[in-house]
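Review form for a predicted model. The reviewer records the input and the model, then writes brief findings.
Reviewer: anonymous (R2)
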Amino acid sequence: MTRRDRYRLDFRALMSQCEENYARMLPLMNALGDRDQMQVDLGHAHHPHTLRMQVLERSPYTTTVRLEDQELLDVLPASRLTVRLYHDARLAEVTEARPFRRVNARYAYPNRNMHQRDEKAQWNRFLAEWLRHVHDHGRDSGQQWRQQVTGG
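Model under review:
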C-alpha cells in the first residue's frame, strides 16, 4: 500500500459529528437529570421496543453514558454504545461499541477483526441516526419525556 492510499482521518468531519451528537444528547441528559438510568420506549403497543440509557461515570467535565438497545432476536446481539460527553468542548463521541471493547480512530486494513478503516466515524454517524430516531419516537416510561426533549 502506498502512502497515498493510506486512510487519513477527517478530523474536522469527526469533530463536527461529535458536536452534533452532543447537541442531540443534551435533551436526553436533561430528561435523565440526577438519575443514573432511564428507559426510553421507542415502539408502540403492538411492537414494544426499549432503549436503556445508563450513566457509567460523572465528573465535572465529562459524563460517560451507555446506550443499549433492546435485543430483538436471540441470534442478533443488541446494539450497545458507550458515549463520552465532553461538556467543556461540547462533544460526544463513541468510545466503545458492542461487541468490541474500544473503538480506535483508525485501523490498518485488512486486519484480523475486519474493522473498517473509518470505523470510529461510522459509529459516530450511527449514534447520530440513533439519537434522531430516539428524538422522533422516544417516550420515557412514567415521565413527560417528549415535553422535556422538545421543550413543549
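Findings: The mean pLDDT is 80.
Further findings: The chain is about 30% helix and 25% strand.
Recommendation: see findings above.
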